[in-house]
Amino acid sequence: MLEAKLSEAGTLKKLLDAIKELVTDANFECNEEGIVLQAMDNSHVALVSVKFVAPAFKRYRCDRPMPLGVNLASLTKVLKCAKDDDICTLKAGDDADVLNLVYEAKNSDRIAEYDMKLMDIDADTLNIPETEYDARVTMPSAEFTRIVRDLSLLGESVRIEVSKEGVRFASDGEAANGSVLLRQTDGAHSSGGTIKPKAEEGKNDDEDDEGEGSSSKKAKVKREKNDDDVEMDEEEKNDEEGEGEFKPGSDEEGEEEQQDDDEEDEEGTSKKRKKKAKETKPSKKAKTSKKKTDDDDDASGVSIEMNQHVALTFSLKYLVNFSKSASLSNKVQLMMSNDIPLLVAYDFRQGHIHYYLAPKIGDD
Q1: SS3 per-residue string spanning 84-95
Q2: pTM above 0.85?
Q3: Interval 129-140: pLDDT, tens
Q4: FRET label pair with 21: which of 49, 50, 261, 333, CA 20 to 30 Å apart?
Protein backbone atom coordinates (compact mmCIF):
# COMPACT_ATOMS: atom_id res chain seq x y z
CA MET A 1 0.00 0.00 0.00
CA LEU A 2 1.32 3.40 -1.02
CA GLU A 3 -0.05 6.75 0.10
CA ALA A 4 1.92 9.92 -0.53
CA LYS A 5 0.37 13.32 0.14
CA LEU A 6 2.01 16.44 -1.29
CA SER A 7 1.07 19.89 0.00
CA GLU A 8 1.20 21.37 -3.53
CA ALA A 9 0.58 19.63 -6.83
CA GLY A 10 2.60 22.35 -8.57
CA THR A 11 5.88 20.77 -7.44
CA LEU A 12 5.10 17.49 -9.21
CA LYS A 13 3.89 19.36 -12.30
CA LYS A 14 7.13 21.35 -12.55
CA LEU A 15 9.17 18.18 -12.13
CA LEU A 16 7.40 16.36 -14.95
CA ASP A 17 7.64 19.39 -17.24
CA ALA A 18 11.41 19.32 -16.75
CA ILE A 19 11.98 15.64 -17.61
CA LYS A 20 9.12 14.65 -19.94
CA GLU A 21 11.12 15.48 -23.10
CA LEU A 22 14.09 13.39 -21.96
CA VAL A 23 12.23 10.36 -20.63
CA THR A 24 9.09 8.75 -22.05
CA ASP A 25 8.39 5.86 -19.66
CA ALA A 26 9.90 5.36 -16.23
CA ASN A 27 9.48 3.56 -12.92
CA PHE A 28 8.83 5.48 -9.72
CA GLU A 29 10.55 3.27 -7.15
CA CYS A 30 8.73 3.67 -3.84
CA ASN A 31 10.11 2.57 -0.47
CA GLU A 32 10.08 3.72 3.13
CA GLU A 33 12.72 6.40 2.43
CA GLY A 34 10.77 8.10 -0.36
CA ILE A 35 10.15 7.97 -4.10
CA VAL A 36 13.03 7.68 -6.59
CA LEU A 37 13.08 7.85 -10.38
CA GLN A 38 16.08 6.94 -12.52
CA ALA A 39 15.96 6.81 -16.29
CA MET A 40 18.10 7.39 -19.36
CA ASP A 41 17.14 9.07 -22.58
CA ASN A 42 16.71 7.01 -25.75
CA SER A 43 20.23 7.74 -26.99
CA HIS A 44 21.78 6.78 -23.61
CA VAL A 45 23.66 10.07 -23.42
CA ALA A 46 21.88 11.59 -20.41
CA LEU A 47 20.72 10.12 -17.11
CA VAL A 48 18.01 11.63 -14.90
CA SER A 49 17.86 10.92 -11.17
CA VAL A 50 14.96 12.30 -9.11
CA LYS A 51 14.31 11.82 -5.41
CA PHE A 52 11.40 12.84 -3.19
CA VAL A 53 12.32 12.23 0.44
CA ALA A 54 9.63 10.85 2.75
CA PRO A 55 9.69 13.80 5.25
CA ALA A 56 8.79 16.15 2.38
CA PHE A 57 5.26 14.70 2.20
CA LYS A 58 2.46 15.76 4.51
CA ARG A 59 1.68 12.08 4.93
CA TYR A 60 3.72 9.18 3.58
CA ARG A 61 3.15 5.46 3.86
CA CYS A 62 4.81 2.67 1.91
CA ASP A 63 4.39 -0.81 3.36
CA ARG A 64 6.85 -2.47 1.02
CA PRO A 65 9.11 -1.48 -1.90
CA MET A 66 7.09 -1.25 -5.09
CA PRO A 67 7.64 0.15 -8.61
CA LEU A 68 5.09 2.35 -10.33
CA GLY A 69 5.58 2.21 -14.09
CA VAL A 70 4.08 5.31 -15.69
CA ASN A 71 4.00 7.03 -19.03
CA LEU A 72 5.16 10.56 -18.25
CA ALA A 73 3.08 12.15 -21.01
CA SER A 74 -0.10 10.58 -19.61
CA LEU A 75 0.78 11.55 -16.05
CA THR A 76 1.40 15.13 -17.19
CA LYS A 77 -2.09 15.29 -18.72
CA VAL A 78 -3.69 14.05 -15.50
CA LEU A 79 -1.73 16.56 -13.41
CA LYS A 80 -2.90 19.42 -15.62
CA CYS A 81 -6.34 18.88 -14.10
CA ALA A 82 -4.99 20.06 -10.73
CA LYS A 83 -4.25 23.60 -9.63
CA ASP A 84 -0.74 24.37 -8.47
CA ASP A 85 -1.84 24.91 -4.86
CA ASP A 86 -4.07 21.81 -4.66
CA ILE A 87 -3.16 19.08 -2.20
CA CYS A 88 -2.17 16.04 -4.27
CA THR A 89 -2.38 12.48 -2.93
CA LEU A 90 -0.94 9.47 -4.76
CA LYS A 91 -2.41 6.07 -3.87
CA ALA A 92 -1.66 2.57 -5.09
CA GLY A 93 -2.44 -0.83 -3.62
CA ASP A 94 -0.13 -3.83 -3.51
CA ASP A 95 0.21 -5.35 -6.99
CA ALA A 96 -2.14 -2.69 -8.31
CA ASP A 97 -2.33 -1.79 -11.99
CA VAL A 98 -3.85 1.65 -11.36
CA LEU A 99 -2.45 4.81 -9.79
CA ASN A 100 -5.06 6.88 -7.97
CA LEU A 101 -4.60 10.67 -7.80
CA VAL A 102 -6.74 12.85 -5.53
CA TYR A 103 -6.72 16.66 -5.71
CA GLU A 104 -8.10 18.64 -2.77
CA ALA A 105 -8.66 22.37 -3.10
CA LYS A 106 -7.37 24.37 -0.13
CA ASN A 107 -9.97 27.15 -0.27
CA SER A 108 -13.06 25.08 -1.08
CA ASP A 109 -14.66 21.69 -0.62
CA ARG A 110 -13.76 20.55 -4.13
CA ILE A 111 -12.19 17.08 -4.37
CA ALA A 112 -11.22 15.58 -7.73
CA GLU A 113 -10.16 11.95 -8.21
CA TYR A 114 -8.45 10.33 -11.20
CA ASP A 115 -7.20 6.83 -11.99
CA MET A 116 -4.30 6.21 -14.36
CA LYS A 117 -3.20 2.85 -15.72
CA LEU A 118 0.25 1.65 -14.71
CA MET A 119 2.76 -0.06 -17.00
CA ASP A 120 5.17 -2.96 -16.63
CA ILE A 121 8.57 -1.48 -17.42
CA ASP A 122 11.67 -3.64 -17.37
CA ALA A 123 14.38 -1.29 -16.20
CA ASP A 124 17.31 -1.93 -13.92
CA THR A 125 18.12 0.58 -11.22
CA LEU A 126 21.51 2.08 -11.94
CA ASN A 127 24.03 2.43 -9.16
CA ILE A 128 25.58 5.87 -9.50
CA PRO A 129 29.08 5.77 -8.00
CA GLU A 130 30.24 8.55 -5.73
CA THR A 131 32.62 10.73 -7.70
CA GLU A 132 35.10 13.35 -6.59
CA TYR A 133 34.99 16.23 -9.04
CA ASP A 134 37.78 18.63 -9.93
CA ALA A 135 35.53 21.67 -10.31
CA ARG A 136 32.25 22.81 -8.87
CA VAL A 137 30.34 25.89 -10.00
CA THR A 138 27.31 27.19 -8.09
CA MET A 139 25.30 29.84 -9.90
CA PRO A 140 21.75 31.20 -10.20
CA SER A 141 19.61 28.80 -12.23
CA ALA A 142 18.08 31.70 -14.19
CA GLU A 143 21.55 32.75 -15.37
CA PHE A 144 22.37 29.20 -16.46
CA THR A 145 19.08 29.01 -18.37
CA ARG A 146 19.80 32.26 -20.16
CA ILE A 147 23.33 31.24 -21.16
CA VAL A 148 22.45 27.85 -22.65
CA ARG A 149 19.41 29.23 -24.48
CA ASP A 150 21.37 32.11 -25.98
CA LEU A 151 24.26 29.90 -27.10
CA SER A 152 21.89 27.29 -28.53
CA LEU A 153 20.92 29.90 -31.14
CA LEU A 154 24.50 29.88 -32.43
CA GLY A 155 25.58 26.24 -32.39
CA GLU A 156 24.83 22.72 -31.24
CA SER A 157 27.64 22.34 -28.71
CA VAL A 158 29.06 24.35 -25.83
CA ARG A 159 32.52 24.21 -24.33
CA ILE A 160 32.51 24.73 -20.56
CA GLU A 161 35.89 25.71 -19.17
CA VAL A 162 36.68 26.28 -15.50
CA SER A 163 39.94 28.11 -14.80
CA LYS A 164 41.42 30.71 -12.49
CA GLU A 165 39.77 33.37 -14.62
CA GLY A 166 36.28 31.97 -13.97
CA VAL A 167 33.86 29.71 -15.83
CA ARG A 168 33.48 30.27 -19.57
CA PHE A 169 30.70 29.00 -21.84
CA ALA A 170 31.68 29.12 -25.53
CA SER A 171 29.84 28.00 -28.65
CA ASP A 172 31.06 27.99 -32.26
CA GLY A 173 28.47 28.11 -35.01
CA GLU A 174 28.58 28.29 -38.78
CA ALA A 175 27.52 31.93 -38.90
CA ALA A 176 28.67 33.26 -35.52
CA ASN A 177 30.61 32.44 -32.38
CA GLY A 178 29.83 33.46 -28.82
CA SER A 179 31.12 33.09 -25.29
CA VAL A 180 30.05 34.08 -21.79
CA LEU A 181 32.51 34.44 -18.90
CA LEU A 182 31.33 34.38 -15.30
CA ARG A 183 33.77 35.42 -12.61
CA GLN A 184 33.32 34.54 -9.00
CA THR A 185 31.08 37.03 -7.24
CA ASP A 186 32.64 39.17 -4.51
CA GLY A 187 31.78 37.64 -1.17
CA ALA A 188 30.62 34.32 -2.66
CA HIS A 189 31.51 31.25 -0.62
CA SER A 190 34.46 29.23 -1.87
CA SER A 191 36.02 26.38 0.07
CA GLY A 192 39.37 25.13 -1.12
CA GLY A 193 39.07 26.70 -4.57
CA THR A 194 41.94 28.55 -6.19
CA ILE A 195 39.61 31.40 -7.12
CA LYS A 196 39.07 33.46 -4.01
CA PRO A 197 36.47 36.18 -3.53
CA LYS A 198 37.73 39.70 -3.98
CA ALA A 199 38.24 41.90 -0.97
CA GLU A 200 35.12 43.62 0.24
CA GLU A 201 34.78 47.02 -1.30
CA GLY A 202 32.94 49.98 0.04
CA LYS A 203 33.84 49.36 3.69
CA ASN A 204 36.14 52.35 3.90
CA ASP A 205 33.62 54.41 1.97
CA ASP A 206 30.97 53.63 4.56
CA GLU A 207 33.32 54.65 7.36
CA ASP A 208 34.11 57.90 5.57
CA ASP A 209 30.42 58.56 5.05
CA GLU A 210 29.77 57.96 8.73
CA GLY A 211 32.63 60.32 9.66
CA GLU A 212 31.32 63.00 7.35
CA GLY A 213 27.83 62.47 8.71
CA SER A 214 28.96 62.88 12.32
CA SER A 215 30.98 66.02 11.52
CA SER A 216 28.05 67.51 9.62
CA LYS A 217 25.79 66.74 12.56
CA LYS A 218 28.18 68.54 14.91
CA ALA A 219 28.29 71.52 12.56
CA LYS A 220 24.49 71.65 12.41
CA VAL A 221 24.17 71.46 16.20
CA LYS A 222 26.79 74.17 16.62
CA ARG A 223 25.05 76.38 14.06
CA GLU A 224 21.72 75.90 15.82
CA LYS A 225 23.34 76.72 19.13
CA ASN A 226 24.74 79.98 17.75
CA ASP A 227 21.35 80.88 16.26
CA ASP A 228 19.67 80.19 19.58
CA ASP A 229 22.23 82.33 21.40
CA VAL A 230 21.56 85.20 18.99
CA GLU A 231 17.82 84.84 19.54
CA MET A 232 18.31 84.77 23.30
CA ASP A 233 20.49 87.92 23.19
CA GLU A 234 17.86 89.76 21.17
CA GLU A 235 15.12 88.68 23.57
CA GLU A 236 17.19 89.76 26.57
CA LYS A 237 17.87 93.10 24.88
CA ASN A 238 14.17 93.63 24.21
CA ASP A 239 13.36 92.68 27.79
CA GLU A 240 15.88 95.21 29.11
CA GLU A 241 14.41 97.94 26.89
CA GLY A 242 10.93 96.96 28.03
CA GLU A 243 11.98 97.22 31.65
CA GLY A 244 13.16 100.79 31.07
CA GLU A 245 9.80 101.83 29.63
CA PHE A 246 7.39 99.97 31.86
CA LYS A 247 7.83 98.13 35.19
CA PRO A 248 4.70 96.25 36.24
CA GLY A 249 6.19 94.96 39.49
CA SER A 250 9.22 94.99 41.69
CA ASP A 251 12.80 94.20 40.63
CA GLU A 252 12.60 90.73 42.19
CA GLU A 253 9.56 89.85 40.10
CA GLY A 254 11.37 91.02 36.96
CA GLU A 255 14.35 88.81 37.74
CA GLU A 256 12.07 85.79 38.28
CA GLU A 257 10.35 86.41 34.93
CA GLN A 258 13.75 86.71 33.22
CA GLN A 259 14.82 83.34 34.70
CA ASP A 260 11.57 81.71 33.50
CA ASP A 261 12.16 83.04 29.98
CA ASP A 262 15.72 81.69 29.98
CA GLU A 263 14.51 78.25 31.09
CA GLU A 264 11.88 78.18 28.32
CA ASP A 265 14.53 79.11 25.73
CA GLU A 266 16.81 76.31 26.95
CA GLU A 267 13.94 73.81 26.76
CA GLY A 268 13.16 74.91 23.19
CA THR A 269 16.82 74.49 22.19
CA SER A 270 17.01 70.96 23.68
CA LYS A 271 13.79 69.98 21.88
CA LYS A 272 15.23 71.16 18.56
CA ARG A 273 18.38 69.10 19.13
CA LYS A 274 16.36 65.96 19.96
CA LYS A 275 14.20 66.45 16.88
CA LYS A 276 17.30 66.82 14.71
CA ALA A 277 18.79 63.64 16.17
CA LYS A 278 15.61 61.70 15.39
CA GLU A 279 15.67 62.92 11.79
CA THR A 280 19.18 61.51 11.30
CA LYS A 281 18.23 57.96 12.41
CA PRO A 282 16.44 56.84 9.20
CA SER A 283 19.62 57.38 7.20
CA LYS A 284 21.41 54.81 9.39
CA LYS A 285 18.58 52.34 8.85
CA ALA A 286 18.80 52.94 5.12
CA LYS A 287 22.51 52.11 5.19
CA THR A 288 21.83 48.92 7.17
CA SER A 289 19.12 47.78 4.76
CA LYS A 290 21.43 48.53 1.83
CA LYS A 291 24.14 46.34 3.32
CA LYS A 292 21.64 43.50 3.83
CA THR A 293 20.56 43.78 0.21
CA ASP A 294 24.17 43.57 -0.91
CA ASP A 295 24.64 40.45 1.21
CA ASP A 296 21.60 38.85 -0.41
CA ASP A 297 23.03 39.63 -3.85
CA ASP A 298 26.32 37.98 -2.87
CA ALA A 299 24.46 34.91 -1.63
CA SER A 300 22.84 34.53 -5.05
CA GLY A 301 26.08 35.05 -6.98
CA VAL A 302 28.58 32.72 -8.61
CA SER A 303 30.79 30.48 -6.48
CA ILE A 304 33.64 28.46 -7.98
CA GLU A 305 35.64 25.67 -6.35
CA MET A 306 38.46 24.20 -8.42
CA ASN A 307 41.27 21.74 -7.89
CA GLN A 308 42.54 21.81 -11.47
CA HIS A 309 41.71 23.26 -14.88
CA VAL A 310 38.71 21.54 -16.52
CA ALA A 311 37.40 21.97 -20.08
CA LEU A 312 34.69 19.77 -21.64
CA THR A 313 32.25 20.00 -24.55
CA PHE A 314 28.56 19.09 -24.25
CA SER A 315 25.42 19.07 -26.35
CA LEU A 316 23.37 22.23 -25.89
CA LYS A 317 20.13 20.40 -26.66
CA TYR A 318 20.40 18.45 -23.41
CA LEU A 319 21.52 21.42 -21.33
CA VAL A 320 18.51 23.41 -22.51
CA ASN A 321 16.27 20.56 -21.32
CA PHE A 322 18.10 20.42 -17.98
CA SER A 323 17.60 24.16 -17.47
CA LYS A 324 13.82 23.68 -17.34
CA SER A 325 14.30 22.61 -13.72
CA ALA A 326 15.00 26.25 -12.82
CA SER A 327 11.36 26.51 -11.72
CA LEU A 328 12.15 24.10 -8.87
CA SER A 329 15.26 25.82 -7.51
CA ASN A 330 16.95 29.21 -7.84
CA LYS A 331 20.39 27.58 -7.63
CA VAL A 332 22.16 25.11 -9.90
CA GLN A 333 25.45 23.28 -9.37
CA LEU A 334 27.72 22.18 -12.20
CA MET A 335 30.25 19.51 -11.18
CA MET A 336 32.97 18.59 -13.66
CA SER A 337 36.05 16.46 -14.08
CA ASN A 338 37.96 15.70 -17.25
CA ASP A 339 36.57 12.68 -19.16
CA ILE A 340 33.73 12.23 -16.63
CA PRO A 341 30.03 13.00 -17.22
CA LEU A 342 28.85 16.43 -16.16
CA LEU A 343 26.56 16.58 -13.12
CA VAL A 344 23.88 19.29 -13.16
CA ALA A 345 22.18 19.36 -9.75
CA TYR A 346 19.04 21.17 -8.62
CA ASP A 347 18.14 20.85 -4.94
CA PHE A 348 14.68 21.83 -3.76
CA ARG A 349 12.76 21.54 -0.50
CA GLN A 350 11.17 18.15 -1.22
CA GLY A 351 14.29 16.50 -2.65
CA HIS A 352 16.56 16.89 -5.67
CA ILE A 353 16.88 16.31 -9.39
CA HIS A 354 20.27 15.39 -10.86
CA TYR A 355 21.24 15.20 -14.52
CA TYR A 356 24.30 13.37 -15.82
CA LEU A 357 25.53 14.19 -19.32
CA ALA A 358 28.38 12.48 -21.16
CA PRO A 359 30.90 14.87 -22.77
CA LYS A 360 31.47 15.03 -26.49
CA ILE A 361 34.68 13.45 -27.75
CA GLY A 362 36.28 14.72 -30.94
CA ASP A 363 33.71 15.53 -33.62
CA ASP A 364 30.90 13.46 -32.04
Answers
A1: CCCEEEEEECCC
A2: no
A3: 788 899 999 999
A4: 333
